[in-house]
TrEMBL record, chain A:
Residues 3-83, 132-216 form the Cysteine-rich domain. One of its GO terms (cellular component) is cytosol. InterPro entries: Cys_rich_dom. One of its GO terms (molecular function) is oxidoreductase activity. This is L-lactate dehydrogenase complex protein LldE. It comes from the Bacteria.
TrEMBL record, chain B:
It comes from Murinocardiopsis flavida. Residues 316-385 form the 4Fe-4S ferredoxin-type domain. Residues 74-296 form the LUD domain. SUPFAM superfamilies: 4Fe-4S ferredoxins, NagB/RpiA/CoA transferase-like. The keyword Electron transport applies. Pfam families: Fer4_8, LUD_dom, LutB_C. Residues 435-455 are annotated as: Disordered. This is L-lactate dehydrogenase complex protein LldF. One of its GO terms (biological process) is lactate metabolic process. GO terms for molecular function: 4 iron, 4 sulfur cluster binding; metal ion binding.
Length: 246, 480
């Protein structure tokens, strides 16, 4: 299958290794990845902070860039949810944006959905001999309703020991600009999440969103916990020949 | 809506910062919210048809609000036909004036109160006090708040921020100023505390000639008011006095008793986590020889018609004040109710208060941002209010207003960079070039991040640079 990668602006700029892992994983599974170079950002930060006009412009760009794709992969639960759930609110009912966004929405996937639902695979042939715990991010859990797709994929990874996370469904406190505007509450939520992560004894915290991982990982690093954070794509891309870098 | 009690309160982030530093408060809140949230999850999980009930609750409220003018007139006619008197109050001042006048007409200087959010919202107790009338709160938690000269911090459990040791101290110190004192040997055993409150309140019930209440629901067809409570203290106030005055928001209407059936299932399970509500009182006008012989209904607008005019925000008027959104909210759990600067704290307060009061004060403009948009509130809301959607909608209103110049400039700049892949690429190359220069702790606004979190390392090359390099290599037949 030909998959159009929407790498997301955050991954593009700060976490390119997640994008590279997606490419490696999908090509290993025999699929073609294309990267439309006109892509930039889904507009989530602007939308969530109340900057509707800026978000609208970015939504128009996104729909124009990816409108023809058979499948769009966004390796970020919140960006996938932005396109699927919020674009319909950005265009007036009956507007071109609203119609094009509605037509595109069913073809936009998070990585776990693309693998499990579209490509029909749960064992991707990965090898990752570490104890891992999984944080189901709010957008993945409540908007995309990913359910157990990510943990089914992780459970099929050879050598991986999956540890259950206490209070998993609770928000980590990132919330985009919330992390800056309400930094005290955000930090309090982050430190509680980090405490639960550390209690699992896991070496690695995994999620489908690097923005949440940046926040929890930054908190874990500050406390010198020794727990690494990895996007799901990086664990699934990991093999004996090319292990993921911790 | 009057803001006198909360006037001068800091904006949400500052108040919340203080609360997160209060270990006792965080412990009290965590314990209480998690207990109620678990009870709710357990009894909601028992019902296979919960999603259908929830959809029905939302649909009934929406339909009623769409034809609110019709139902309000019908309610007025029904109450009058049943022997009650109906008053219309456009705002808090008018409602307070009406209630004060009605109490003065009885010649009484005391009233007993049923727990009511509407009267808290209009600050009726303060208005009555100015006229020399003392209002006694009779709900146990409201009594604790009143005796402690405090503000409520939760819709269902107004004294949730207090533990039993603090309650004992408040009872011992202040009960004597209000009536029957607490026994000198009072312990912090919950039964002992409840008994002290019971003895203190019993005297008020037996003496009171005027009762003041709100209502959870008002049935338009029959003119019936409905109050749900857990203690029986409300029923004392609704039955023993000679005069009963009910202050009810205009959004509390349900058309018929069969509509009520849906909410009598939704509300107890969502609020106290009970299958059935312990004390459900209903009254219709006046019944000769039984209960209050003089009944007044004060229908309160106080900003509600403005909320109704907003097609996105109006879903907040579906709210049945269950508090499920407060109990699930990770922000409320850490910030506490007082940080919201209103009688409506938590997620529902963050969308209701800025709609009722506007966003002109710094506090009210900060409320739509008092959320990480995690969506847990929407998931538990028994009338499916999409709180994150309304929060974002209100953020748009704040952004369209004055102020926030630095943020607007930064957002416009980010928007400009992101609206062109070449500009984004140039910005990424600039960041990579400066990657060795990023300090461990950032100055100015950046410190909001680095005070508690490390910053991620900036990579040597962006994804799009890697992609281009890789494809060039492939075109030449080289390896990745």
């Amino acid at each position: 299958m030909r998959v159009a990668l929407f790498v997301t602006c955050l991954n593009d700029t700060l976490f390119p290794r997640t994008g590279r892992a997606v490419v490696r994983l999908l090509e290993r599974l025999g699929h073609e990845v294309v990267f439309p170079e006109a892509q930039t950002c889904c507009g989530q930060m602007h939308y969530n902070t109340g900057y509707r006009r800026e978000a609208q412009k970015l939504a128009v760009r996104f729909v124009r860039t990816f409108g023809d794709a058979d499948a769009v992969l966004a390796p970020s639960g919140s960006c996938a949810a932005m396109v699927r759930d919020n674009y319909r609110r950005l265009g007036a009912p009956g507007s071109r944006l609203a119609e094009e966004a509605a037509a595109l929405a069913p073809r936009v996937y998070d990585l776990s959905e693309l693998l499990v639902d579209v490509l029909g695979v749960t064992d991707v042939g990965a090898y990752f001999p570490h104890r891992v715990t999984y944080h189901p991010t709010c957008h993945g859990l409540r908007l995309l309703k990913l359910g157990d797709r990510p943990t089914r994929l992780l459970s099929a990874v050879r050598g991986l020991d999956l540890a259950e996370l206490d209070g998993a469904a609770e928000c980590c406190g990132f919330g985009g600009t919330f992390a800056m505007k309400n930094e005290a509450v955000s930090a309090a939520m982050g430190s509680d999440k980090a405490r639960h992560v550390a209690a699992t004894g896991a070496e690695v915290l995994c999620a489908v969103d690097n923005s949440c991982l940046m926040h929890i990982g930054g908190t874990l690093d500050r406390s010198r916990s020794g727990v690494a954070v990895l996007h799901l794509a990086e664990i699934l891309a990991s093999t004996e020949q090319e292990p993921a870098r911790l | 809506m009057s803001d006198s009690a909360f006037l001068g309160m800091p904006a949400f982030p500052a108040a919340a910062r203080a609360a997160t530093g209060d270990a006792q408060l965080r412990h009290n809140l965590r314990k209480a919210t998690h207990t109620i949230r678990d009870k709710r999850a357990s009894v909601v999980g028992e019902l296979d048809d919960w999603p259908v009930l929830r959809a029905a609750g939302a649909a009934i409220k929406d339909r009623t609000l769409r034809h609110l003018d019709t139902y309000l007139v019908r309610l007025e006619e029904s109450v009058r036909a049943a022997g009650g008197t109906v008053h219309w109050a456009a705002d808090a001042a008018e409602a307070n004036r009406i209630v004060t006048g009605l109490v003065q007409a009885t010649g009484e200087t005391e009233v007993v109160k049923v727990k009511s959010m509407a009267t808290q919202e209009i600050e009726l107790n303060e208005a009555l006090a100015e006229a020399g009338i003392t209002a006694f709160e009779t709900d146990l938690a409201e009594l604790i708040v009143q005796l402690g000269d405090d503000h409520p911090s939760h819709i269902l459990v107004p004294a949730i921020h207090r533990n039993r040791a603090e309650i004992r101290e408040i009872f011992l110190r202040t009960m004597r100023d209000w009536g029957v004192p607490a026994p000198d040997d009072l312990t912090d055993d919950p039964r002992a505390l409840a008994e002290a409150a019971r003895v203190h309140l019993r005297e008020k019930f037996l003496r009171a000639k005027v009762g003041v209440s709100g209502a959870n629901f008002a049935v338009a067809d029959t003119g019936t008011m409905v109050v749900l409570e857990s203690e029986g203290n409300g029923r004392m106030c609704l039955t023993l006095p000679e005069t009963l005055i009910s202050v009810v928001g205009i959004e509390k209407i349900v058309p018929t008793w069969s509509d009520l059936e849906v909410f009598l299932q939704l509300l107890p399970r969502s609020s106290t986590g009970e299958r059935m509500n312990p004390y459900t009182s209903t009254w219709t006008g006046v019944t000769p020889g039984d209960g209050p012989q003089d009944f007044h209904l004060v229908l309160l607008d106080n900003g509600r018609t403005d909320v109704l005019a907003d097609t996105v925000g109006r879903q907040a008027l579906r709210c049945i004040r269950c508090s499920a959104c407060l109990n699930i909210c990770p922000v409320y759990e850490r910030a506490g109710g007082h940080a919201y600067g209103s009688v409506y704290p938590g997620p529902i307060g963050a969308i209701l208060t800025p709609q009722l009061r506007g966003t002109s004060s710094e506090l009210d403009a900060s409320l739509p941002y008092a959320s990480s948009l995690c969506g847990a509130c929407y998931e538990v809301c028994p009338v499916a209010i999409d709180i994150p959607e309304v929060l974002v909608h209100l953020r748009e209103q704040v952004v369209d207003g004055p102020g926030h110049r630095a943020e607007k400039a930064a957002m416009a700049a980010a928007g400009w960079v992101l609206d062109d892949e070449k500009r984004l690429g140039a910005a990424q190359r600039a960041a990579s070039g400066a990657r060795g220069l990023v300090p461990h702790t950032l100055p100015g606004p950046g410190s909001a991040w680095t005070d508690t979190r490390d910053v991620p390392e900036i990579p040597a090359e962006s994804f799009r640079q890697w992609w281009r390099r890789r494809n060039k290599g492939r075109d030449k037949g080289g390896a990745e």
